[in-house]
C-alpha cells in the first residue's frame, strides 16, 4: 500500500539559522506538522496513547533557504500490526532536498504496543 499526502510549506525567518538556511531540527518539526495535517481527523480510541516516534532517520541533500516554497510528500511505505513507517520527502522545484524515514508505534493505555485500530487503518 502506498498513499501519498502533500503538505506545502514556506521557509520563514524563524525556520532559519543566521545564514538564512533552514535549521536542521526544523525539518523534524515540519515533518510532524505534515503528519498531523493528514491525521488530524483520525480518532484515537479513548484511553489509548496513540502514535509515538520509535525511530527517525533523516538525510539532508540540498539546503532550503529563507523564502523557499517546498512540499513535504509523505508516503506510507510499511504498515505493520502495531507500527508504520513513513517516508517524507522535502521537495522544492522537483528537487529532493531531504528524506526522512520515521517509524511510529501505536501504544495502548498501558504504554505498550497495541494493534492499530481498524478505524485508523481505514482512514489512511
- The global form is elongated
Q: Number of helix segments? A: 2
CATH architecture: Roll
- How many individual β-strands? 5
Descriptive notes:
The chain is an alpha+beta fold. The protein has one domain (4-123): Thiol Ester Dehydrase, Chain A (Roll). 18% of the residues lie in helices and 42% in strands. The chain is built from 2 helices and 5 strands, in the order βαββββα. The protein has helices at 24-39, 118-123, and strands at 4-10, 50-60, 69-79, 83-92, 95-107. It has a 5-stranded antiparallel beta sheet with strand order 1-3-4-5-2, covered by helices on one side. β4 (83-92) and β5 (95-107) form a beta hairpin. The longest helix is centred in the first third of the chain and has 16 residues, at 24-39. The protein is elongated and about 45 Å long. The termini are close together. The model has no long low-confidence stretch (mean pLDDT 93).
Brief rundown of the structure:
By secondary structure, the chain is α+β, with helices and mostly antiparallel strands.
SSE arrangement:
Blueprint: E1 4-10, H1 24-39, E2 50-60, E3 69-79, E4 83-92, E5 95-107, H2 118-123
Antiparallel strand pairs: 1-3, 2-5, 3-4, 4-5
Task: Tag the structure with descriptive keywords.
124 residues, five-stranded antiparallel β-sheet
